[in-house]
């Protein structure tokens, strides 16, 4: 405990008397310094106090207080003669104090190491709560710092741990002044300073005492246990806040994942069309798309002056193949002329080729479109309409939720045209280059919708496999739907706080 200031007071004590065989304890009658500072000793030392030893001592409202005295040395101690030149013979000793168990505060001159050890040993036998020391004959200035070699009594400094009371150093002038006052308030009431005024003012008993009372205002040093307790409390608060925020974020993200899963299953959102997740269609769902025999009858040529010469080209006619009844039915003309499978680039043969029609109306070879939908993409190779079945949903992750949310916010700021999905078509191109010259041989034009065409360029001299062509027909999607590519600290942060 470090001391901040020191107060000296003069108190009037009652003398214990015997009544019917019982001893009446001595009590404080008056604080003479508080009532009349002109007739009693009082002093306040606000600075120049050094804490040498911080051993714990009981305090009252941050104050160590007790009667000031000088410890007695044993007879024959070598320090007894040395200290006589600094301690007056009539300085208050324990025998001069009221005969009760009052708390004591010692005042000792720090002459040398041997004398200080003798006073510490003597004071340890008394009901002491603190010791004040000063270096006599020094200049009247601040006492040396606690780490100074002047306060060393042994090489390791173990003497500070052996005492059961703290030790404080005051300046040389303050110590000598306090020792002088202590010698004035050690005798009978009639011998203290201003004895007549005290007797006239308070009318005390001649056997009463006037002694010096010392108060030390201290602030306790933080103990390791207290520091660790504070650290644990702070950590507990931080963990509680972090845990609460993390739980809230996990709860919100769980709700968002459930919402996105529900919208994907209902067909409201297609993750692949948004560029979030590559999807494939289950084989059993692909088989639900009907098979037909390709049938196309080109229109008869009309004379230039005939009105039919200006009509639009005939559309595809498809004959249904029913696996159960093997009956045929006419399919309504829904699309423009589609003479080629866009995946393998083979030309359909009328009334021979078996084709599969998707829900969007585009036709392909069954083996081509089945492999494409089950292994490559759930979107139609031509119009990018979704073939993903309702009621199905991949595993929804937090990264998918974040990307879908950001896409939704972007669309709310910049609304997209509603006809873009119907008019947009992928362009698949195979080019051939030799000697820095582009060759356009083998170019084919397939009309897919009014005003729209897809140009296919076969690479000459280097055949392209069907699977490679499938790769060119799928939408480019950023497959970084996880945090695997992020630094470890960021992955850990998103694990704890999934909303980041």
Automatic annotation (TrEMBL):
This protein's name: Uncharacterized protein
Organism this protein belongs to: Xylaria curta
